[in-house]
Amino acid sequence: MVIGGLKVGDHVVKEEGGRRHLIFVCKDCPYSASVSNDLHCRYHIITVLSEVEADLVVLAEVYERVYREAQTKMLIEIANLRQRFSMETVWSYKHLGKASKECEAYFSERHDTLVKIAHDLIAFDPILAYLTLLKEIKIEKSKADSQGKGYVNCSAPYFEILAFLKQSFEKTELISKIKTYLTKLRQIPETAQLYHSIFEADVKPSFIGSRLMFDEMESLELLDEYTVKKATVQIFSHPSKTECLYFINPPEYTLSPEKYFVLSKTREIVSGYRPGKTSLSTVAKSRRYFERLYESTIKDVGKENQIRLELDEISELASIVARYTVGYGILEILLSDRRLTDIYLDSPIGQKPLYVVHNELGQCQTNILYTQGEANSLISKMRAMSGRPFDEAHPVLDFNLTDLDSRIAIIGPPLAPDGSAFAFRLHKITPWTLPQFIDVNFLSPLAAGLLSFFVDMQATMLLTGSRGSGKTSLLGSCLLEVSQSNRIIVQEDTLELPVPYMKKIGFNIQRLKTRSPISVSKTDTEVAPEEALRTALRLGDSALVIGEIRSHEAKVLYEAMRIGAAGNIVMGTVHGDSAYSVWDRVVNDLGVPNTSFKATDLVVVARPIRFAGSLKRNRRVVQMTEVKKHWSDDPEREGALLDLMLYDARKDHIELIEDNLKESELFDKISRTSGLTMKEMWKDIRLRAEAKAFLVELKNKHKLPVLLEAENSTVCRNKIILLKEQQIREFGKIDYDDVLGRWKNWTTTVFLKRLLKK
Ligand SMILES: Nc1ncnc2c1ncn2[C@@H]1O[C@H](COP(=O)(O)OP(=O)(O)OP(=O)(O)O)[C@@H](O)[C@H]1O
Ligand SMILES: [Mg+2]
User: Fold this and answer.
1) Which atom of ligand 1 is nearest to the CA of 620?
2) What pLDDT does 714 receive?
3) Which ligand has the minimum distance to the alpha carbon of residue 467?
4) Angle at alpha carbon of residue 203, lines to 207 and 425, rounded to 5°
5) Is the dihedral of CA 702, 708, 710, 716 positive or negative?
6) Is residue 620 within 6 Å of ligand 1 at its C-beta?
7) Which of 184, 236, 292, 521 is deepest in the core (most CB within 10 A)?
C-alpha cells in the first residue's frame, strides 16, 4: 500500500529498556511527523499498529517524537477496533435495515456512512469518526421521531449497529478521555486541538539517546528557574508528590530545523574522525581542540547547504557536537549545575527518569530518560579514562572526574542484577569554610569558634551524619583551621578533600590515596587503608585526617591513638546520626575496643533538616558531644556522652549547654596541656567566633562572597594568630578584646580594601 508516496513498512521495531520501540523513519516522509498534527501520519501509524506489536511509537526525523506507552496503547486500541469492525463487516447488508423496498432506498447512503466511520475516518481521525457517528445517531433519532413507526421498524438493524459502534468507540481510552473533555466544552473544537491535548510527544534530537519529557506542566508550581550552559532549568513542585521535578531544556532540543540539520550532519561527519593514538583522557583535556575542529566542519556544512550561520551560532553548535562526541552528553549539563549535589541513574536504564539531589530542594525527578546505549558508551569512556577494569569480576568502578569536579561510581552485574547503575557526586569547586557555613546557617558563630578552638588544641574529632549531610565538607572546613605551620596527612579512598587547593594557598599537606573498600576488584594495585595508615603513622608528628573511617583502618587508628602514637590532631568522618551511633559503629561494627574508643574527644553531628511544610532541605550541625573517659561498657548509659552544644529546631539555632560545661573533662585536659584558664579558653573561643561572624557581616555588607573563600579567610585567620603571638611577645599574655579590635581594624582598613581593589 502506498500513502502519500511513502510505503507502509518504513519502520523497525527495536527493544530498549525492556520495551519495544516501533520506530518510523520519517526523514523522507511527505507529511509532518506528528500524531497530533497530521492525519496521514496517524493513518500510517494506526495501520502499522494493527500488524506489529509495540510499546512505544517513535517518529524519527532530524529530531524524534516519542509517544509513550499510554499514548501508544490508545493508538493500538483504535487499530484493533478498526480491525474488528472490518472483520465483522459492520457495513454489510444485514446491518443497513430490513429487506423491504421502502427501507432499501436508504441502504446506499447508510453503507457509505458506516464505511466512512468504521473504516476510513477511524484511521485518519478516530475522534472525528466518533463525532460523525454521534451526528448520524442524532439525525436518525430525529428521522425516527418525525417519520413514525414504519421507519423505526425497517431501520432497527441500522440503529443497532450504530449503537454497537458507539459502545465500542466509547470503550476505548481515547474516546472515553475525549468524552469527559467534550462534556466540559460548549462547542466542539477542531479535532486537531483534541489530539494536541492527548498526544504531546517527548522530543529529542535523533543523534542523542536521552529523551526529554514535557507533559503535565500546567498543574505544577514553578519554584525556581535558571540557566546552565545555555540550558533552561525549571524546578517545579508537584501537587501530589513530595519530591520536586527538575525540568531541563538544553538548546540542542529546541534548535531550528536548519540548525538541527547542520548539527546532525556534522555529527555524522565527525563520528568518522579518530583521535589517533591519543587516549580518551587526553581527548577530554583537549576539548577546545575538538571544538575548533568541529567549528570548521560546521562552517563547511552550512556553506554547502546555503545555511547562514553567525560566528556565535557556529561556536554554540560546535560545543553541542563536542558534548555528544568527546563529552558526557546531556549529563554534562547536569554536572555543570553546581546547585546539584548528586545525580542517580538506576538500573534498568531507560525505565525510570534520572534523579538528582538539589542542594536546597532535596531529591528531584528529572525529565530525562537515559538510554542503555548512552550508558554503555559512558561505561567504556570511564573504563578508558580510569584505566581500571569494569566487568563481572570487577563490578564496581569508582572514579574522580577531575575536569568536572565530580566523582562517579558505577556498579554492574552481578552486583547490580538489572544492569549497570550510576551515581555522581558533585564537589563544591572551592572548599567550604567555617565562615561560609555560618553564612548559610549550617552552624552558629559560637559552634564554629568551638570547632576552630578544638582543632587548634589538638582534640580528636569524629564528624558524623547521614549520607550527604555535609560531613566531608565540614571536615574540609576544619582542616582549614589547622595552623599552616603544622603538617597535615590526609588519607582517602575517593579524593574529595580540598588537598590541591590547600597546598596552593600555603598549607603543608600530604595526601595518601587508598583502595576503596567498595571496590571488589581482585587485581587492585592500590594500597589497603590499614596499610596506608601504618605508613602515615610513620611519617612523624602531623595532623592525621581520615576522609572516611569505614573498615579495618579503624582498629589501627585507635590503637595508635591509645598509645599516643597518632600525631597531634586526629580527625575523620564516620557514617552515623548521633554520638551514640558513632560509638556503636566504631566499637560494634568496626571492632575497636571500648578502651581505645575513649581516645575520641568530640563527636560532631550534621543532619539535613526539613522544616514543617517546606520541601527545602537545610543542613544543620545538630550536636557537639564530648566523650568522657570514665566508663566501661556503654558510654550513653554511664553518662559519658556529654553534649556541649545541641540544636533546637524551634529556634533553628544550636545552643551551648552551659550546665554541662562544668562536667567537661576535655576543657580540663586542654587547660592542663595549654596552661590556659577556663576564662582564657572561653575568651579565645569567643574571639574566634566573633572574628568569623565579622567576616560574614563584611561579606554581606559589601556583597563580597570571595571574602569568605578559603584563600581569604585563611589570611584573616593567620592575622589573628600573628596578633596573639605579638601580644605574648610584648606582654607575656593575650588581651583578647584588644586582639579582636586590632584585627577588625586591619581587616576593614587593609585587607578588605585590598580585596575590593582587585
Ligand atoms: N551546609 C551546607 N549547605 C549547603 N550545601 C552543603 C552544606 N554542606 C555540604 N553541602 C554540599 O552537600 C553535598 C554533600 O556534602 P558532603 O560530601 O560533605 O556530605 P557527606 O556527608 O560527606 O556525604 P557522604 O555521606 O556521601 O560522604 C556537597 O555537594 C556539599 O557541597
Ligand atoms: Mg563524605
Assistant:
1) 1
2) 97
3) 1
4) 75
5) positive
6) no
7) 236
Grid coordinates belonging to 433? 569554610
- Residue 374: pLDDT band by 50, 70, 90 thresholds? confident
Residue nearest to atom 8 of ligand 1 (CA): 470
Q: How far is the CA of 467 from the centre of ligand 1 (A)?
A: 8
Helix, strand, or coil here: 460? strand
Q: Which amino acid is at 738?
A: D
Q: How many residues does the chain have?
A: 758
What's CA 271's distance to the chain center, in Å?
28
- Go through 528-553 and write b for each residue having 16 or more CB atoms within 10 A of its CB, e for each that does not: bbebbbeebbeeeebbbbbbbbbbeb
Using CA atoms, how far residue 389 sits from 285, 379, 399, 515, 528, in Å, is 22, 10, 12, 14, 18
Per-chain mean pLDDT for the chain: 87
| pLDDT per position as a tens digit, 376-412 | 888 988 888 888 888 888 888 888 887 788 888 899 8
Ligand 1 pocket, 734 CB below 6 A? Answer: no
Q: What's the pLDDT tens digit per position in 161-183? A: 999 999 999 999 999 998 887 77
- Separation between Cα atoms, residue 627 and residue 742, nearest integer Å: 36
Mutation to probe ligand 1, out of 340, 360, 473 (largest number of atoms < 8 A from CB): 473
**Strand 355-358 relative to strand 340-345: parallel, antiparallel, unpaired?**
antiparallel
For atom 25 of ligand 1, which residue has the closest CA? 467
- Taking the CA of residue 465 as reference, the ligand 1 atom at the shortest distance is 21
The domains found in the chain, sorted by start residue, are 87-180 (no CATH), 252-426 (3.30.450.380), 458-672 (3.40.50.300), 676-758 (no CATH)
437 Cβ below 6 A of ligand 1: yes
Q: For residue 119, give the C-alpha cell.
A: 473504516
